[in-house]
Amino acid sequence: MTPPRINPSEIDVQQAEKSVLANGVALYTLPSADFEVLRISFVFRAGSAVQTVPFSASAAANLLAEGSDRRSAQQIAEQLDYYGSWYDVNIDRDYAYINFATLSKFFDQTLDVAAEILLRPAFPEEELRTYAAKRRQRLAIDRTKVDVQAREAFAQALFGPRHPYGISSDESLYDSLTRADVSDFYRRFYTAENCFVVCSGRIGEHERQAIGALAEQLPHGPAGTGADFPAPETVHEAFVPHPGAVQSALRLGRLLFPRQHPDFVGMQVVATALGGYFGSRLMQNLRERNGYTYGVVAAMVNFERAGYFAVATQVGTDVTQEALQEIYREIERLRTEPMPDEELALVKNMMTGEMMRILDGPFGIADVTIENILCGFDNTVIGENIRRIRSMTPADVQRLARKYLARENLVTVSAGLPL
Fold it and tell me: Which CATH number is 72's domain given?
């Protein structure tokens, strides 16, 4: 007998406890006594969008642990490994995320290494040159793939070649990246003004005080740093030739708005229905019915200063035009035909279930908390968003699709065969 499906209409997510340190850094804590681990996430407004020297943002983030003024890269790695601690770096267009996870009993030792990484990176010349050579080679190889070509061309088509969200720098510029470039980026952006900290797991007063003491050592930085953000220069079609390609990579979408917009959640419902789960309309059409692709996805993407809707897939070059027409047809169906109630109920359940999965555990709650902080929300927005999702009607879906997904407003990019 199949158990009854439970769809929560209300969700109560732990609120982060916020304190502001002496240097202005906001410290958020999500204590949970159920786990003997904790994670500390330092979030810096230090993404690629604010760099003025190509690749300096990613180099600064990825070289933080490659040696300090007290320890070599090997010593740092060995100490983290000895205590079973986990160190991770992620960087996107807007932010760098520096994460440390540790068993509670090794908190002090791990935090000591974190201080070396965050406060005293040396950016050794030898490590920089090794890093730059590897990254140049990897990027050159990646750019031979149609999906990477389409992704970069789509960003440029949406924002323009001079916009920080649209720039794709030549990989040869890794050769001219200097230690001074990386150090200068670190000095300007790894500062108190550009940072907040989120801690989750087994956090007592000792841990709170120690993390705060470390974060208070972050220096103040120079004012007026960062790149200019010109108005986007959108073009509606772009093609990247790829002689001999077996597949075409397709990207469709349009500039819309960031997550703070009142229609963002509704457009997430539209995107999920179109291509956000295995049984979505595009998967049924392109994969199950026509056999054009193994997978297709549609989503809303959020940046700090912009947001967009996108569809992405790879199809055989011999069916490129047919696949494009089917994508347009499915979008138009959302605009002209009300979605059946049963299908919309499934979409809502998929979205709610995915949120519940993400929130399963203190680190997942911390990830969602970070995203909410970046968008100016607290965790009460999670329940609000679930209520918005569950209140969506077929008429709401059709209204949003008609409003935002008109064919003439869509950007279409193909790498492989011409449009």
Answer: 3.30.830.10
pLDDT band of residue 404 (cuts 50, 70, 90) is: very high
**pLDDT range class, residue 41, cuts 50, 70, 90:** very high
Q: Distance (Å, rounded) from C-alpha 246 to C-alpha 243?
A: 9
The number of distinct structural domains making up the chain is: 2
CA–CA gap between residue 258 and residue 255 (Å, rounded): 10
Q: Which domain covers residue 77, as residue numbers?
A: 17-215
* Residue 121: strand pairing partners: 68
DSSP 8-class letter at 232: P
Note the helical H segments in 18-122: 56-62, 73-82, 107-119
Q: Do 199 and 252 belong to one domain?
A: no
pTM attached to this predicted model: 0.93
Cβ-contact 118, 190 below 8 angstroms: yes
Do residues 54 and 181 share a domain? yes
Cα–Cα distance for residue pair 373/368, rounded to 1 Å = 9
Inside any domain, residue 177: yes
Give the Cα separation of 158 and 413 in Å (integer): 10
